[in-house]
Amino acid sequence: MKKLKSINGIPLPYIKSILKIDPLSPSGLAWLPRKNMQFNSYCANKAAGGQHKSTVNQYKSWVVPISYKNNKKNYTCSRIIFLLQNGYLTEGKQVDHKDGNSLNNKVNNLRESTFAQNQHNRKIQKNNTSGHKGVYWHKKSGKWMVRMRKNGKAYYFGTYTNKEDAIKVAIEARKKLHGNFGRDE
After folding, report:
1. Arch. (CATH architecture) of 3-113
2. Taking the model in full, what pTM does it have?
């Protein structure tokens, strides 16, 4: 996969000229001073970005507005931070929050992932009835079933009378299938 030294056509050197990683900033970014004195009095060395809440799934993230070549657009702070820290973004990959908190943009909490890996790291869905990822009630058998996916393929790990046994199997299966991206809760 191709390593990009830009984000949506905005080159890394330009981003480095306007933003810096700031662990004290809620978004993880701060504005750098610029030639425009009015900008400096309002923004220089202050936290950059604001919270954005998706209207589709209520997902919260930090975004920062960047103007480049007369085009102003909001960019996800976690991607900017990863680019500033590592010097690249891999084409087709996402930036994952290890702890599952999309508002925690600390450098050590960010890592590149595929879409599938990012999904493995999701927290348990609200409509989950068992309380555990990969554990489902199988009506026909009257038992708990363990099933999960990796790269679009479904894996079946059996049915269990005892829910606790199914949970143990699911945890072990997730470690094997999803590795560091597996999340149990």
Report:
1. Alpha-Beta Complex (3.90)
2. 0.86
